[in-house]
Amino acid sequence: MQKKFLRWLFLVVFCAFLLTFATSYLIQTNQSEKIAISLIKLKIDDAKNQLQITENNLNAIKQMTDKIALVKAKILAQYVYEQPKMLSSPNRLEKIKNLLDVDELHISDSKGILIASIPEKYKYFDMNSTEQTRVFMPALSNPNFEFVQEPKLRGYKDGIFQYAAVSRISIPGIIEIGFRPERLEEAQKLANIENISDGFRIGKSGSIIVIKNGVIISEGISNKALDEKEKQNLLEKSKNFNNAFKTKFGKTKYICVSEEWNDYVIVGILPESEMYLSRNFVVQALIFVNLILFVIIFFLIFLLLQKIVISGIWKVNASLNKITEGNLEEKVDVKNVEEFEQLSEGINSTVGALKNAIDAESKRLDGELELAKAIQHSALPNIFPPYPDHDEFEIFASMDPAKEVGGDFYDFFFISPDHLAFLIADVSGKGIPAALFMMTSKTLIKNLAKTGLTPSQLMTKVNKQICKTNAQGLFVTVFFSVLELSTGKLVSVNAGHNPPLIKCSNEDAKYFNCNSNIVVGVMNDVEYTSVETILAPGDYIFLYTDGVTEAADINEQFYGEERLQAKLNLLTSKEFSVESVLTNMRGDLEKFATGANQADDITMLILKYKGFKKNIEHSERSKTNQSSLSLPARVEEFPKVLKWLENLSEDAQIPEAEKTKLQIAVEEIFVNITNYAYASDDGQVEITFKVNNEKQVEMKFSDTGIPYNPMEKSDPDITLDIQDRPIGGLGVFMVKNLMDFVGYEFENNKNILTIKMNF
Amino acid sequence: MQVIEKKNGTTLTIYAEGRIDALTAVDFGYQVHDALDDGDFVELVLDFVDINYISSVGLRVILELQKRMKEQGSMSLINVKPAVLEVFAMTGFTKILTIV
After folding, report:
1. What's the pTM?
2. Inter-residue contact A652 to A625 (CB < 8 Å)
3. pLDDT at position A156
4. Strand locations in A555-639, DSSP E?
5. Is some CB atom of chain B closer than 8 A to the CB atom of A1?
6. Number of Cα atoms under 13 Å in the Cβ half of residue A500
7. CA B93 to CA B99: how far, in whole Å?
């Protein structure tokens, strides 16, 4: 903007300068011309006056000369009258001629024939014979005749000559004298306009040109002779009287004015250079002053603008830059001018409002993220032990999400009574897209797994599906295994995931050498391959995500594979439950990462294979339909009881109505034990389930709590009206009514309650 | 368990789904009492169309509700399933409750 403004300012100033210059130039020129023209005219007037005076002088002299001439002629006439005899004496004529101071004498007879002349050669000349002399003939008839003839040029050398005549006294005749009118001649010479004009100057180098009858008779004092073309040009232009015109003689330009005077055309000329002398000076001075002035103005405006506007704009821009780079705390602080103050305040309040909006939005977003995280978390199986009736294995898993919604997950489920599938997975990316991707992947794997595909077929199909709908370019690493419970055979597919640790009893934990296929979701037509291994009873397999190995401490060191291996080795050597192993592992990770933020989800799954021998035992027991469940006497454990009972009831094919009755009875008994058997929460209760002869269920509840025989409790009076009915006491009553047999015994310090139901 | 309330003037209808047992009974009770506190109802209707199980804890809660409603109006149960009805019968609750 600065450059643009400068350019425009310069343009404007320059134009103003030019305008001033042009105007003053024009005015000055005009003035100069006017002055020059009036000067010329003045000079011409002077010349005219001069000429007039001279002319007057000339006339005066002429008159005088004429008068003198007549007087002389009259004197001669008188002489001739008084002494007529002198006519025949040349000497006497000569004497009179000298006396009169004339050059010629001529006396004629009555017919006009000269009878006496000086010079003598003119004797007998006939005055009537030439036009010139004829003018005097009237003297013969008019006694009062007197006439002075115009001076006439007499040859080149003789100059002018004049004749005057009077008539002879008392006798007709012409008395004529001839003389050289020297004074007149001189005067005429003086009055010669050519001479006058020679002396006339106009200004320094101006002069006068005189034209008579279309002929330039005086060229003034300009030394250079005019050529024909110039002369013609001048003659033409000078016909325009009293109006100035310009012309060029040689290389010099002139301004000219022409005027008429008598027979002459007087042209005053002045060189243009002289005319414009003062103008040039003034204009130069003006240019100089204006230049300085405008330069000063230019810089003043520039500096002013710079100081007030541009620096202000720069500062505002600098602040705005900081703001757009993300620093919303930046305040615009340009207050030198009111407009800028308003601008600053406007910007600041806008930014403030923007900040508030952003804060509000991010809070809302946080809330949504929290919700998403909670939903995700609850989608993972988190009830442990999940299959209490299965003694072949123990399984435990945990997922601790990082701050943002994550993408780790684990899963386990039965795909057939003898096959347990379990897996761990890590979705690329974070946030809600990763979370959604995680949910769909998990569901897809589980659904496809239940259709009876082998692990490798499963992974291939899962990959195809995910690639089809994977617009966002996310991928997931998966480690998926199927454990055949009866044999311990483990078939696994690894899709780009960290290899799990396997701890065989009597050996150190080591990383499972499973060939790694490509991660799921990037390449459409990959055939996944699986590996097989056998787990022996007492073996552990430990699955984890890179949130474990890449957990960092405050020095940004990773937990690492070796540490993990060593720790697992240690923990599984002790007689910890699988839950304790993970809990301890988690604790060790936390200790390691003290002071640092959790960057990634920490997910672990551990399975301990306990062997198929127990399975056979169990299945043998299953044949006799006895199972047992041992758990803490806490109300929160009730769902486990229910689930266990549900499974067994299903297996035993107990009809719905009886199932419900059984559930109610079990609930009542269990709740009573939890409420009353133990003073603290530490007691255990053992429940057994057995089907006798396939038509009777027998269950036993044993606890080591306060000895209590519920059979001793008297039945509530169910006929009472509502206001009289006590709130409690129904449990045992219901058990008694629902079951076909209820028995109690106290044996080995245990309360044992037995119920039987036929179905 | 989620309880759905339907208010119709001075009648409050409660619909619930699932089991009223040691785990859910207390919460069920709280929700119904809260709903009753929210207005001035003279009639409470419990729609048991989707209740398929009740244990003694549940019975306790129902009894409490019945006692309360006796003070301020009436209570009835509708669409009671056979299994649940049997429990009511066994425990003499059919006498105390208005079962429709």
Report:
1. 0.38
2. yes
3. 67
4. 602-609, 626-632
5. no
6. 30
7. 10
